[in-house]
Amino acid sequence: MRRAGLGEGGSGNYVASGYSVYEEENEHLQEGLRAKVNALKSLTIDIGTEVKYQNKMLDEMDSDFDSTGGLLGATIGRVKQLSRGSQTKLLCYMLLFCFFVFFVLYWFIKLR
Fold it and tell me: C-alpha distances in angstroms, 11 versus 17, 18, 39?
């Protein structure tokens, strides 16, 4: 098979050997590129796994916050009911209890 630019005789061997050098260099660069593509592929797979884990954790936090919000809503409703009466001492105790519960929940969530 003849290629363009390759002559017959001594000069053809020189051009063929130059072509071989370029071919080897291309193979080497191709292997480097293949390694980089594989590294990027594994990185994107790891990122996808981390995103799925983070989404699961966010869903769990959302449900925890919903349950805490329901508890606090019920407590505030009771406090409002108490505020309609003239029991100010009991109202103060309830507010302190609410702050205590909020602080404990905050501390629990922060440590988690």
Answer: 10, 11, 43
